[in-house]
Amino acid sequence: MFLEVQNVTKIFRSSEKKSIVAIKDLSLQVSKGELLCILGPIGCGKSTLLNMIAGFEKPTSGRILLEGREIEGPGPDRVMVFQEETLFPWMTILNNIMFGLRLKGLSDEESRREAQRHLSLVGLERFSDFRPHELSGGMKRKAELARALAIDPKILLMDEPLSSIDAISRAGLLREILRVWERSGKTIIYVTHNIDEALYLADRIIVLTARPARVKRKIQVDEPRPRDLLSNAMIDLKRNLLKELAQSHVLAE
Amino acid sequence: MVGLERSVLLKRARLIVSIIMLLIAWELIAHLVVAIRNVPFPTVYETAMRLLRLFSGEPLYGISIYKHLADSISRWILGFSLAVSLGIPLGILLGYSEVLWDLFMPIIYVIQTIPGPAWIAVALIFFGLGNAPAIFMIFMVVFHAVVITTASGAKSISRKYVNAAKMFGADKFTIFFKVFLPAATLPIISGLRIGLGNGWRVMVAAEMVSGAASGLGYSIIESRWSLDFPSAFVCMLLISAFGLFVQRVIFRHIEQRVMRRIGLTRIG
User: Which of A197, A222, A241, A251 has the maximal Cβ count within 10 Å?
Assistant: First the structure.
């Protein structure tokens, strides 16, 4: 198995007495090249799960294995597109993308070429000399996507990347993500609380329960892409998902 | 474009009205105090006349108003620069390392609770009378403001950038110099802005208690004995005018240039 989350529990201890069980005995598997969406209510611990896969947090118990090796810390084989903006504001877009490439040991010229190539991939080639604050929210997201893809990670982690984007740009960005995934063949784990995003993108949707997060349902989405969310099949799926989420919400109350 | 100009003009007009309201309130209070308490309270006119006489070179407590102003400014600049040159590096280190934060921040918080003039005993023991105790008091106040603002700002702002850098496999050296430091620029500037204001205000109090024989604060406290209150009012005006000038004009200008340079927008 490509990525394996084995019986992971995560407990945050805020003081001697208080502790929060964010994730409880959660297991899941991701195969290579899969586009997996993890769907759950806000605050259910899905970002924590992603942070552990990225290596920013360690599981309290259980293991996470990538190609059979346990994850020790953050590294360039697992790149995250964060919910908040993390392009370096003091660098141009091009330099932002070159940052990771240089660290991989590429020469200046090679990293410049690779960076340019990935900027064109997301349609930002004309903006390479701009600073992040001169770009729209959607363009910044694309730049972050390019930055993540440029260093050729094994797996791309996306933590509600479109939650701060308006509905109109969101549709375009979803298409972009899909296109990038189809072209690059990357494994993507996409975390969201938005059912439509999950339905539009996913090979497979994993529905989490409210905190502590556990796997509630795994749903295979076999509809061909590009998907029409208003087709009967998709509406049926959405109805099912809504029911699942409503139940997990009731459980939390 | 016409609309924009109009709104700018309106803002200017309101500013002028605001200043006129202040002057009218001052004048009214002056006349009321004279009527009720029967003691002279400097009016706007008397103060303005005193200002002109002082500016034309009439000495105040033996020296010219320009010398008072220059002495105040030089004490402030000295105290401020010393505090900044130590406070910024320390703030950066405390923001970067959790261990250093835990070790040093409690001390800084203790210092923060002590108002500048309360350091008088320490200042006198260290330096005796003269310039140095005033500079020391300014230093203490600016120092904690710079350290706290820089450290806490750097810590919170740079976290997400540092995380991103770690993810791309950056080593500690790269993270500190290429990511943490540029991200800390903004809190450093906020620290400077706060320190500048704090330092200027405490300078006045420091001169009152530290036995400096010149300066705007000294001139104000001397009016207790000389009863030359119009001069004290002139000094208050100068304190306010110069403080506003430095913070609003000079510093704002520097701040905006740096902001554009690093592509960040101001917080707070």
Answer: A197
Whether this prediction's pTM lies above 0.90 is answered by: no
Q: What tens digit of pLDDT does each residue of A136-183 get?
A: 888 999 999 999 989 999 999 999 988 888 888 888 889 989 988 998
- A226 touching B (Cβ < 8 Å): no
**Is the bond leading into A212 cis (omega within 30 degrees of zero)?**
yes
Q: Which residue has the tokens 């496999």?
A: B169
| Per-domain boundaries in chain A | 3-77+154-252, 90-152
| CATH, range B42-262 | 1.10.3720.10
Contact between chains at B263 and A132 (C-beta distance less than 8 A):
yes
Q: Dihedrals φ, ψ of A96, to 5°?
A: -60, -45
Residues 6+ apart with CB under 8 A from A216: A207, A208, A209, A244, A247, A248
Test the A interface: residue of B159, B160, B168 with most A CBs within 10 Å: B168
ipTM: 0.86
Superfamily designation of domain A3-77+154-252: P-loop containing nucleotide triphosphate hydrolases (3.40.50.300)
| A 39-58 → B contacts, CB under 8 A | 54-56
Whether A103 has its CB under 8 Å from any CB of chain B: the answer is yes
Tell me how far apart the alpha carbons of residues A9 and A11 are, in angstroms, rounded to a whole number: 7
Q: Which residues of A touch B169 (CB under 8 A)?
A: 75-76, 100, 103-104
- Cβ of B263 within 8 Å of Cβ of A86? The answer is no
Residues B6-36 have pLDDT tens digits of 888 899 999 999 999 999 999 999 999 999 9
